[in-house]
Each structure stands twice: as structure tokens, then as C-alpha cells.
Write a structure and sequence with these properties.
Helix content is about 40%, strand content about 15%. The chain is α/β, with parallel strands linked by helices. The strands form 3 sheets. Strands 2-8-7-6-5-3-4 form a 7-stranded mixed sheet, with helices on both faces.
Length: about 400
């Protein structure tokens, strides 16, 4: 095996080198090594891809759809994305010039930020949130401005946003990232709450990157896309990973005004060339003929949510009922006198339940832990029994 030559040891990107791996992945991998543990760490649906979607991927291979697609994705899939967004969220995008198919929503986030940020630019990130945003901003030379939303039950209010923009200097803030339904909190913005955001942003020279990957997983309310309220300044991100359990297919997309897409498309082309054909044909089938596929999954998730939240609160972990996604985000009682990392590690080692420390989701997550209920009810029920026993051991 080759050993790195000493002459190139210090030839390294100084921004990337100090970074650790994703804390979400780190704890998931660490805890997975513990025998007998129940893993409620990763946010990956425990359902299989719908059969008709799998068959579309298989057919594309049998039909020799094996050459490069258009760089922004097959026109069939982009048309399906456009039609789907219009039917589901009443937003309108031209498939030719306003949609890019990406390698998951992750790439969509990266190329969107790359199209905006210059060194020293600031991006507002309400936390707790999906921690991917922070290192991407830093790699691109930007400065993430973390805003703790815990005092407002995990919501970024219009008032708070205005205060932060004034404090940081409106000329320096180039974007706001919203993730809703939220990971890790399950918070869902209402139309009225989004209008507060729009009122603040509408006269500022800044975009809003609206990551709506969990849009199909809301409970008791219909998802409202920010793009419906502010299409000219919204960069809409979505994908198939959560709605159709297609995490491994790696298909996401970004939809935005054509001038923005032109810039983002350059980074997309230089980074990945084009998405995989079988995955694209599967995604097209899911969007064209599988709009109802998430309904049964959503029903099951809601049953799990109601059970796990009831149990968490009964055991003594303050947990707000999530309105979307498939996570709970709970407060660790102050009387335990331990950090969220210490709590998660002890729970894994002693209680045999794997959870993610809240600090993995930014500063606003400190003192909390996330549980994923994208797991079987059997596992969730056993995990709650173990959590109760573990909690009793801390209190004795």
C-alpha cells in the first residue's frame, strides 16, 4: 500500500483538512458496533422502493439507456419534476431552463451555494438543522451565521431574521437556508410564518435556499412551498430519497429562475457531468405514476410518531410533537448534568439505544438528542423500554 510522500504531506486544502466527518454519520457508525443496539440514528426510510419504480429502472437497463443523459438530467425527468411541483405545490418551472436533476439533494445544496457565495459572504442558517449546510458554506469560503431557534420552538421568526440581518450587515448576507419540514425537529412552517420571512427578505439582495426534501411527509397539514410565495428569490430543493424511500438512487433536483440555474448548472456539469440513467428513469416513474406512494408510508410514520412522542414525554424528555419528517428532538433534563454527547454515548453503551446528539445539528441543538422513527414499531417499542430503564438508572 502506498505511503504519502513527505514532499506532499502539507499540500492540502487548509479549509477541508481540519474538518471532521459528519457527526450524524460518526455516531451512527460508532454506535452500530455495539452488540444488540437498536439504531434510531440515521434518517433513512425503512420501506422498500415501490415495485413499479424498481421496474422502471430495470427496463431502462434492458432498453440500453446506457449513454450520457443531458447534463441537467433527462428531459423526461425534468418535465416530470415540473409537473409534479405544479400539481403538489402550485409552483411553475420550465423544465428546459429552470430545473437541474442532481445527485441527491446534497448536490443540489452544494451547487446552489456555489452559485451564490464569494469568499467572505455570509449565509444565515437557523439551527438546529441538517449540519451539511455549515461545512459546505465554509468550503466555499463563506461564513455561516448560526441562529439558535430553540427559544421560539425551533422556528425562525421574521423579527429574529431581521435582527440578524441588521447585525451582520445586509450587504454581507447573500442567502438564508430554510429546511422544512425540519431535520432534526420536524418543524413545519405555515403560510403565515413563511410570509414573515418573505416580508423581511423581499427587499434584500439575498436568496433563500428552501430545502423541502421532506415535503411529502407532513402530518395534519398540507406543505406550503416558499417558492409559491417568493418564486423570484427562492432556490427550491427537493428529491426522491424521503418521499419514495429512494435514498440509494441519489436523485434530487433544484428548481429556480433560469438565470440562477444557468450558473448553478455550470458547477453541476463540472462536478458530476450527468446523473445515472437507471435512477433517472425510476425517478420519472415515481413522479409521474407514484404521487400516492408516500401516503401509506406517511400513515405509518404518523402512528410511530404519536407513540414515540407520548413515550418520550412520559419518561421525562420534553418533546414537541413534530409536524413533519420522521424525527423527534428531545430535551435532556438539566438534572442529569451531562452534555448531549455524554448522554448519547451512555445511552448507547448502557441502554443499547443509538440516538444522535443534538450538537450534530449546530449550536441550537445542544442539550438535545434526535431519534429517527424511520424504523419498525417493534424496534421503537423496545427502544422506549430500554430508554425508560436507562433513565431510571440515572435517577437512582
Amino acid at each position: 500500500m502506498p505511503k504519502l510522500d513527505s514532499s506532499v504531506k502539507d499540500v492540502v486544502n487548509e479549509t477541508i483538512a481540519p474538518m471532521g466527518i459528519s457527526q450524524i454519520r460518526y455516531f451512527a457508525q460508532k454506535f452500530a458496533k455495539i452488540p444488540g443496539i437498536i439504531k434510531l440514528t440515521l434518517g433513512e426510510p425503512d420501506f422498500n422502493v415501490p415495485e413499479h419504480v424498481k421496474q422502471a429502472a430495470i427496463k431502462s437497463i434492458q432498453d440500453d439507456k446506457s449513454h450520457y443523459s443531458e447534463q441537467r438530467g433527462t428531459i423526461g425527468l425534468r418535465k416530470a419534476v415540473s409537473s409534479y411541483l405544479n400539481k403538489q405545490y402550485d409552483v411553475t418551472y420550465d423544465p428546459e431552463s429552470e430545473v437541474i436533476v442532481t445527485i441527491g439533494a446534497t448536490e443540489a445544496v452544494f451547487i446552489s451555494l456555489a452559485a451564490i457565495i464569494n469568499p467572505g459572504d455570509k449565509v444565515i442558517v437557523p439551527t438546529p438543522t441538517f449540519a451539511l449546510y455549515l461545512p459546505i458554506i465554509q468550503v466555499l469560503g463563506g461564513i455561516p451565521i448560526q441562529v439558535d431557534t430553540t427559544p421560539d420552538n425551533f422556528r425562525l421568526t421574521g423579527k429574529k431574521l431581521a435582527e440578524v440581518i441588521d447585525q451582520e450587515g445586509a450587504q454581507n448576507v447573500k442567502a438564508l437556508i430554510l429546511n422544512f419540514p425540519g431535520n432534526p425537529t420536524g418543524f413545519v412552517y405555515s403560510k403565515e410564518q413563511l410570509e414573515e420571512i418573505v416580508d423581511v427578505v423581499k427587499d434584500k439582495s439575498m436568496f433563500v435556499i428552501s430545502d423541502e426534501i421532506y415535503a411529502e411527509l407532513t402530518y395534519g397539514r398540507k406543505h406550503v412551498s416558499l417558492a409559491k410565495l417568493m418564486p423570484g428569490k427562492t432556490i427550491l430543493i427537493n428529491g426522491l430519497s424521503k418521499s419514495h424511500a429512494m435514498t440509494g438512487y441519489r436523485i434530487g433536483y433544484v428548481a429556480a429562475p433560469a438565470d440562477f440555474i444557468e450558473n448553478a448548472g455550470k458547477m453541476h456539469a463540472y462536478t458530476v457531468t450527468a446523473p445515472s440513467n437507471p435512477a433517472q428513469y425510476a425517478a420519472q416513474e415515481a413522479l409521474e405514476n407514484g404521487i400516492e406512494d408516500p401516503i401509506e408510508m406517511r400513515k405509518i410514520y404518523q402512528e410511530r410518531r404519536d407513540y414515540i412522542v407520548g413515550q418520550l414525554n412520559d419518561i421525562g424528555y420534553k418533546t414537541i410533537l413534530p409536524e413533519g419528517a420522521f424525527y423527534t428532538f428531545s430535551k435532556i433534563p438539566d438534572k442529569f448534568n451531562m452534555s448531549e454527547v455524554e448522554f448519547a454515548e451512555k445511552l448507547a453503551e448502557q441502554g443499547k439505544v443509538g440516538v444522535t446528539p443534538g450538537s450534530a445539528f449546530g449550536k441550537g441543538g445542544e442539550g438535545h438528542f434526535r431519534m429517527s422513527y424511520a424504523s419498525s414499531m417493534e424496534d421503537i417499542q423496545e427502544a422506549m423500554k430500554r430508554l425508560r430503564k436507562f433513565t431510571e438508572s440515572l435517577e437512582n
